[in-house]
Amino acid sequence: MIGLVGCRDSHRNSRCRSTEGLYECSAGGTHNPTMRNEAISERTKAALAAAKARGTRLGNPNPAYALKRMRAARQAQIERYTANILPIIREVQAGGHTSCNAIAAQLNARKVATARGGRWTHVQVRQILDRGLSVGSGSKVATPPH
To answer: Measured in Å, how far apart are the chain's first and last C-alpha atoms?
Structure first.
């Protein structure tokens, strides 16, 4: 088995220095991440083969149900995010910014994070407003087109 030699730090640690594929670490050891990854791969393959030999059924026994649960969880996450961000958008609208572009600019100016941490666009604002109307959260104010 190939492993780390006297190394307590991960090779991604800034205290490790590369020398021709080997990494010298602050713990005083050296290791080769490629060899380590290959060893992990071999151990995993051997364990899966042993499980298969024992008759263990590998994989998800009901992928359709798992997919249904994932979709439901994602929808719940979207609804929570919409419920959290919609009051901020309503506040921006109350301040006189009614177009989706203006709302997006205000959200970016306030450094309000999008669901994925990026910058707001009129498309995202429109989607949140549409979801807010369909979910029935709060007042049903007509939203202007972008």
So the answer is: 61
Do the Cβ atoms of 87 and 138 come closer than 8 Å? yes
Burial of 128 (0-12, 13-18, 19+ CB in 10 A): buried
**Residue 65 structure tokens:** 């149900």
80 C-beta neighbours (distance < 10 Å), count = 10
Cβ atoms of 60 and 66 closer than 8 Å: yes
Whether the predicted model's global pTM rises above the 0.85 cut: no
Residue 83 contacts residue 128 (beta carbons within 8 Å): no
Give per-residue pLDDT as tens, 18-65: 555 555 565 556 667 788 888 899 999 999 999 999 999 888 889 999
Which DSSP helix (H) or strand (E) runs through 126? helix 122-135
- Tell me the longest C-alpha to C-alpha distance in the chain: 68
Q: What is the pLDDT of residues 72-123, one digit of tens each?
A: 999 999 999 999 999 999 999 999 999 999 999 999 999 999 999 999 999 9
Rounded Cα distance, 127 and 141, in Å? 15
